[in-house]
Design brief:
Elements lengths: L9 E6 L6 H12 L4 E4 L2 H12 L3 H5 L3 H20 L3 H7 L6 E4 L5 H11 L3 E7 L2 H6 L12 H4 L9 E4 L4 H18 L1
Parallel strand pairs: 1-3, 1-4, 2-3, 4-5
């Protein structure tokens, strides 16, 4: 049975490494579809909000791509893992509450348990999208390998997931990215 959100026509679960462009791609798709049709949902939102409350931190600063967030990232990952071990669907349920748009883009799917929860809750309308970017492209976007972060489940949990429904290559070639997004948009429009 679906939780407290509306009934979506399509749920796209985006995953990829840090600085692969997950937010960039989902925001671009939303801008093309419109906010009344498409909601971008972030599993990290309720995680960061609860973490900030429990640790006396600035929630808004944890949402941006700042050094402030990076300072707390490792501990936040551990804290989030403890929450998920106690209740694997905790953050998934939080982000769908009250969502009424027919298209949902979950921009930061990181674990098999996230995918499993959405597949169990929403069935056949759930699709997986992997964003792939070379290390060089990610480095140009500011990525630097961080032990305890880039080798943790939050970054590697879906590396050997199997086959994704969609794979978007985001190596910095705008034309190539645009062609792939057009294919995905055509699929999304067919679900409306």
């Amino acid at each position: 049975m679906a939780p407290l959100g509306g009934t979506p026509r399509l749920v796209l679960l985006f995953s990829g490494k840090r600085k692969s462009g997950k937010d960039f791609v989902t925001e671009r798709l939303q801008s093309r579809l419109g906010g009344n049709i498409c909601a971008v949902l972030r599993l990290s939102g309720p995680l960061k909000e609860q973490y900030a409350l429990e640790h006396g931190l600035d929630f808004q600063r944890l949402l941006d791509a700042s050094t402030y967030k990076e300072e707390y990232r490792r501990d936040m990952i551990c804290w989030g893992e403890e929450k998920r071990q106690a209740d694997p669907g905790f953050f998934c349920r939080k982000i769908v509450e009250g969502v009424s748009q027919p298209i949902w883009l979950v921009s930061d799917t990181r674990r098999r348990s996230d995918i499993q929860w959405f597949q169990e809750a929403y069935g056949a309308v759930t699709q997986t999208v992997r964003i792939v970017a070379s290390e060089q492209s990610r480095q140009q976007r500011g990525w630097v390998f961080t032990p305890g972060v880039d080798d943790a489940e939050s970054e590697c949990g879906l590396d050997h997931f199997g086959s994704f429904d969609w794979v978007i290559e985001n190596h910095g070639n705008e034309r190539c990215l645009e062609d792939q997004l057009e294919d995905l948009l055509e699929f999304i429009h067919a679900k409306l």
